[in-house]
Structures
1.
Amino acid sequence: MYSAEIIQFGGEPCILAAGLDLTERKRTETQAALLREELAHLGRVTMLDALTASLAHEINQPLTAVATNADAAVRLLTAQPPRWRELAEALTDIRRDSQRAGDVVRRMRILLRKHASEHEPIDLTGTVADVIRLADGHAGLRRIGLDVDLSAAGPMVMGDRTQIQQVVLNLLLNAFDAVRDRPPAGRQVRLDISQRDGTAVIDVSDCGPGLPEEAMALLFEPFYTTKQEGLGLGLSICRAIVGAHGGTIEARRNTGPGMTFSVALPILTTRESGSAGAAGTPRLQKQE
């Protein structure tokens, strides 16, 4: 980086120039970004490991239905006369269930893939909705009620779709853990999206026991955890991801039981969304 200006020295105009070598700082920033991406990928792998049972259930259900309908289709086809209308219905069900299983695998693959961070305009509501589809089965197996309100008018934000989904999924899994020891009727988690002061805010609330003051102070620090089996990296990775998106993440105790975690991300203006969206479209299509 260089700068120069004309000054008067002894009554004569002179050029005062200064240079600063930013090579080392740029190298450090690049290394920090690579480390953040490595940690983010590790966090996604760890989360999906926790979801193994529910994901297997989500895939097995439609595959079992496909096998059942395939057997029925064979019987309908060989009947005398063939029962064409019922056969068409069975084939329609096979197609629907195959798509359902494929969607689960697609969402898993997106979360697991290792890639350089790509910031582009994304629909936050649709991005979060895909996470809900992954987490809903997990909540059902643990008899947790998941209340979702995505009625906010689809705010657009600039960011990496996979990393934002990682943050939301991490907060949901933490909330599920927070309520797991409550009676089934009291296992409630809520997620909603709202818009406040030019930001899109994702709130994840639970009705668990909450956290003491000393835990609140250390909550986002690396390797700090209140779980016996935890590594203490999930929330620190979330903070790094949200910070890299120009946003904030905070935790607060509810007036009633439990905690609320809030992620605030800058909303794109119409002009920003339009100019950046044209360049971002190919990557969005490729990602899907």
2.
Amino acid sequence: MGSRAMSAPLLSIRNVAKRYGAVTALAGVSFDVHAGEVTALLGDNGAGKSTLIKIIAGAQPPSSGTLAIEGVEVAFASPADAKAAGIETVYQDLSLCPNVDVVANFFMGRELTRRVAGLGWLREREMEAETATALHALGSRIPSLRARVDMLSGGQRQAIELARFVHWGGRLVLLDEPFAALGVTQTRRGLELIEQVKQRGVAVVVITHNVLHALEVADRMVVLHQGRVAGVRRRDETRHDDLIALITTGAGAEAA
């Protein structure tokens, strides 16, 4: 497995199709996702982005085609299977519990405990220190780890999600429209966080409608049009107009 794992893409998508009765949502989609890179998934409404993400995240099976992790074919029966493989999806509405603090959210389901007189007690100081270290590693700016999550900004909540994912060994994170509800300053911080996650060797797939954000943060861009891959472009080899043409017509600006 050694040399193959080093050279193979982290995720390979091959000829993935999804049909709902007579409706074809995806028709033979193929592309690769590499560790330590950001891939932007672009496309208009109905292009198939959400369907593809659900398949990668284990929420839906493909009608045909395959997924492979480091060259080994996988079949996810549930989101739990995808998470076990190191794949996590961060949705717009996030999965944090708003009425508890940052530390409780960071360790949710993984709490550190000790037994005293037969009773279980949380190891609060250790949990707080570990949370602080993980957030600091991503350059996150959260004023108090004991603040309730519902008191934090959208950007700060995303920072918790991303830091938690990286800290617990995630390999591929799917970000679903991560900037949709953020202001200008928070969006800037979000772009910086994605770069920090990438620098830690994690593969990032960003689903976005915003071509400018894609050109700023992504190493490569995959454009879906009517359920097919209209084009794959590296950032240093494409232009804004070309991506817009692919999104709207399925043909690049040069071919239009």
3.
Amino acid sequence: MNIIITGASSGVGFEAALELILSGKHKVIALARSQDKLERLLEIAHGLNPTAEIYALAFDIIHDDYTDLQQFIKNNFDNRVDVLINNAGVLINKPFVKLKELDFVEMLQSNFIGHVRMIQAMVSLMPVNGHIVNIGSMGGYQGSVKFPGLSAYSASKAALHTLTECLALELNDLEIKVNCLAIGSAQTEMLETAFPGYQSPVMAFEMGKYIADFAITGHRFYNGKVLPVASTTP
């Protein structure tokens, strides 16, 4: 499969990208804003699998020109994307009364609008049975426990969850499947920002493996689903 993953420079995205190249069956384009961190990803990936077909591109899903990304895909993927994993995101931890409007704008741009732009740019390259996997959060999952300081982040993730359900219907005629994993805690830098001092029982590499496995097989069983992936709260 030809797989694109955003937010691949750290956390669960970094680990998912490594998991995807282990078998040697898939080609991976890893996207993130930090070229230095992407270079580290490539180094580790080729250490694990010297023949891994993994390509890295420093790319900002909000501000950069998608024409450049589409050309990169044409050069390395023969213009076909089987799986798109929308994992990029940021988090602001701040009490609601102290949040500025720009904080909400940043959350919506990074955790929602950027993914909208990515999907719109990629959908024409996806074949029948293509799979779009949005990485949501238990913070935006309806009925889940919510936490102070995370209202802007949680609201942006809730928007991504609803988009997933809408796109599954809109892309049905193209036979492209769309699902969302509302992930709970995994030991990452973002978790430390949200819950300083908390230690998750789930390691980043474990959640990364789950995401990678779901991206490859989940479309056989699900479409339009927002699936909670959490063993603890947070």
